[in-house]
Specification:
This protein has helices at about 5-15, 15-25, 35-50, 55-70, 80-95, 150-170, 215-235, 250-255, 260-275; strands spanning about 5, 105-115, 120-130, 135-140, 175-185, 190-195, 205-210. By secondary structure, the chain is α/β, with parallel strands linked by helices. The chain folds into 2 domains: about 1-25 and about 100-275, Lambda Exonuclease, Chain A (Alpha-Beta Complex), CATH 3.90.320; about 30-100. It is globular, with a radius of gyration of 20 Å.
Amino acid sequence: MNEKFSYSKLSTFHTCKRAYYINYILGQRNSDNIYSILGTSVHECVEGLLQQELTREQAIEKFEQDLDFADVLGFTFISDKTKNNFTTSIHHYLSHFEFDKNVEIEIEKPFCLEFDDYCVQGYIDLIIHNSDGTVSIVDLKTSSMYNKKSIEEDHCYQLLIYALALENEGYIVRDVSWDMMKYAQVKTKRSTKNVLRSELDTDEFKPCKVYYPLNEESKKKCLNWIEDTVKEIRSMDIFDNWECIDNSFYCQNICKQESCERFKELKRNYAKNFN
């Protein structure tokens, strides 16, 4: 049986090798966090809206229920300001959600991009069938806006993997983009800027769609990234130094691996500061 990878698995290796080792070598998968729980909730809300199973009001009600449930389970944001920005922005997104009901779409489509002795698999949030026979790939994101460096070094590969997989199935992919759900695009006198929905002071805005170039060069770049990453993973020995990232936000809020010495150290330091 071919070894199975995913974009998330490959990305974790680049983000933090220690996290990869604990999650995928030792099999000690990290627990949920507030961002993963509410990210799933928002995806389900949008899926319900797209399938016309939920009204906007029902979608907001579901999100609020999931937010309360996360709070009961003890999952919290790092600050009240972060919570307010997230919840207010998502409320705004859901209350202004629109789509053309006459356009054919596919939601959460599974895919498998085959290589010689492994594959990269996953699910595509949204595929829009265009009138010219092409499709547009949209990935829904509740995260903060990506910077150029993180897009080029990591995030672009998720969209490109989706495109390569669909092209292997015979689709003609016109474009790939992220729907940055917490943000809206607002026109200024000189340009267009992306603004947190919680900070909007105008009724004139558009959804924040961020496109990534889809061409032979970018697709080749993605294939090289996949092959080089898998090669590096397979070259690692279980006794090698699986280096831990020096990023306290990632450690404390995303990864949260109790068996990781870096995480334990951050927890000890946090406790000292508040004692």
